[in-house]
Specification:
heterodimer, A: mainly alpha, elongated, B: 105 residues, mainly alpha, Helix Hairpins, EC 7.1.1.- (chain A), quinone binding (chain A), cell membrane (chain A), NADH dehydrogenase (ubiquinone) activity (chain A), NADH-quinone oxidoreductase subunit J (chain A)
């Protein structure tokens, strides 16, 4: 039963990933990414990691995908089609990726994994204790570092997206000199006119 | 562990996802599409951490905790990247890679 579910999830994930990187409409490729992320959450549920699956669904599927969809909607029209790379370049990249994949698979299938047959369920309480423990094997320092990182990312995102003052393009120097000469000529001409009026 | 599914099958699945992400990262010409490909790569590496934790060291928590950290870093990275992309769009009216070849004003 689990085997069948795993294969269905795997097929959905691979097909959605391929559709996500090859679709020419941007919003559709984001939605295909959402399918891949939900498939990964399904894998975590199969492996009995319920907490991680919940995090995957809330943070990835709920947060990141919605953020990307917002940016797509802000930036361009839904129906606008993306330009794609040249076919030669695409085939070359696909070939390189297949080469890398074959190297990966050769390594994976030749490595003897010492798989244990014991299976234990991890409860949320254990994860919480591990995250906040000071003892050996505790994760209190990375936990605090990640909280500072999230704060910095939040402030940085606000500062960057708000934008500073609009920067005026600097005028080239030649233009400025030309304007100076023009101004002087104008003043001289006005003085001459004044002199003429005075003599008259 | 998942009954009836060996570790090599899941590692094969994550490798395929990783290289699909690499393919999209190289061939796409749009900043948001590149961001989507990066998410694919990150997600496949997270699944790898979890699988190795579950199959080889089921009584440990390291892989799981690090995958939580990777998810947090991915969320921060996406928020910053979206902010940068929106700012680039405001300045250049485009999010294509070839328009953003210089990082100057």
């Amino acid at each position: 039963m689990e085997k069948v579910i795993f294969y269905i999830l795997a097929i959905i994930m691979v097909a959605s990933a391929i559709a996500s990187v090859s679709n020419r409409k941007m919003l559709r490729s984001v939605v295909y990414l959402l399918f891949v992320l939900i498939g990964a959450a399904g894998l975590y549920f199969l492996m009995d990691y319920n907490f991680l699956a919940a995090i995957q669904l809330t943070v990835y599927a709920g947060g990141i995908v919605v953020l990307i969809i917002f940016s797509v909607l802000l930036i361009q029209h839904i129906e606008m089609e993306l330009e794609v790379a040249k076919p030669a370049r695409r085939w070359f990249t696909a070939l390189l990726c297949l080469l890398g994949l074959s190297i990966f698979l050769a390594t994976i299938y030749s490595h003897p994994f010492a798989v244990t047959q014991t299976s234990s369920t991890t409860t949320v309480a254990e994860i919480g204790h591990a995250l906040l423990s000071f003892e050996k094997g505790g994760f209190i320092l990375p936990f605090e570092v990640i909280s500072v990182l999230l704060l910095a990312a939040m402030i940085g995102a606000i500062v960057i997206a708000k934008g500073g003052k609009e920067i005026e393009p600097k005028k080239p120097i030649e233009d400025m000199e030309f304007e100076k000469i023009l101004k002087e000529a104008k003043i001289k001409a006005e003085e001459k006119i004044l002199e003429k009026e005075a003599t008259v | 562990m998942i009954p009836g599914v060996s570790i090599t099958e899941i590692l094969t699945l994550t490798s395929i996802l990783f290289f699909i992400g690499v393919y999209g990262f190289i061939t796409r010409k749009n900043l948001i599409s590149i961001l989507i490909s990066v998410e694919l790569i990150l997600n496949s590496s997270v699944v790898n951490f979890v699988v190795i934790n579950k199959y080889l060291y089921p009584e440990m928590l390291q892989g799981m905790v690090y995958s939580i950290f990777i998810i947090a870093v991915a969320a921060a990275e996406t928020a910053l990247a979206v902010a940068i992309i929106i700012n680039v769009y405001r300045r250049l009216s485009s999010v294509e890679v070839r328009e953003t070849e210089t990082m100057k004003y």
